[in-house]
Design a protein that fits this description.
The protein is of the alpha/beta class. The protein has nine helices and nine strands. A hairpin with a 2-residue loop joins strand 5 and strand 6.
């Protein structure tokens, strides 16, 4: 990013009550969106993570309510019927959804929310939020590196890894639909880029509602 953005990244928005923004990260499986999301939340007290609901089984080390809300397919479909998701989709035979209530509550209170969803989920979220949403697509440096990362994390068997690789080409074709695109060749640099994007988006005029009165006071009430 430019030196101008780097200089502005540490500048706080005007101190006025604002509605939070929804930061959406998407990528093929293994390109880094989940890790970047976790690092961002750990580094910024004003960011909350949207914990998705899923019907897939828990993996080793996962905690219900921390990594995902794990539910039955019956309960998931009941939530769909009650319009409790901002977006949802079926991926590799399992359902995933973004709960509506905690996201809307956080945004109303002025907190920013980060969520990692696929391109289909991003399209659904855009219908709900529009001006409140910023989208970032994360690309791997190479296809070979993407496959290496999927295998090295040892979460899926070879069949699932190949299914994810086959889907990656379609997922990456949607990069032009996003506001920002980052090539994750270095995790620390990718995280820093997302942090700067969030800081700059917070500084946009439409997200600083107290500016009109502040500037009027600087001009002597004019």
């Amino acid at each position: 990013m430019s030196s101008d953005i780097n200089r502005n990244a540490g500048i706080a928005p005007f101190a006025g009550k604002r509605r939070g923004l929804l930061l959406v990260l998407s990528s093929p499986s293994g390109a880094g969106k989940t890790t970047i999301t976790q690092r961002l939340v750990a580094s910024d007290a004003k960011v909350r993570i949207s914990i998705s609901t899923t019907t897939r089984p828990k993996r080793r080390g996962e905690i219900d309510g921390t990594h995902y809300h794990f539910v039955s397919e019956q309960d998931f479909k009941a939530s769909i019927a009650k319009n409790e998701f901002l977006e949802y989709a079926q991926v590799f035979g399992n359902w995933y959804g973004t709960p509506r209530a905690p996201v809307e509550r956080a945004l109303r209170s002025g907190l920013d929310v980060v969520t990692d969803v696929d391109w289909q989920g991003t399209q659904q979220l855009r219908q709900n939020f529009r001006d409140d949403m910023v989208s970032v697509f994360i690309l791997p440096p190479t296809i070979d590196e993407l496959e290496r990362r999927l295998k090295s994390r040892a979460q899926d068997d070879e069949k699932v890894v190949q299914e994810r690789m086959a889907k990656a080409n379609d997922e990456m074709s949607h990069w032009p639909e996003y506001d920002y695109v980052i090539v994750n060749s270095d995790l620390d640099e990718a995280v820093a880029a997302v942090v700067e994007i969030l800081q700059v988006e917070r500084l946009k005029r439409i997200r600083q509602p107290g500016l009109t009165d502040f500037v009027r006071s600087l001009r002597g009430g004019a």
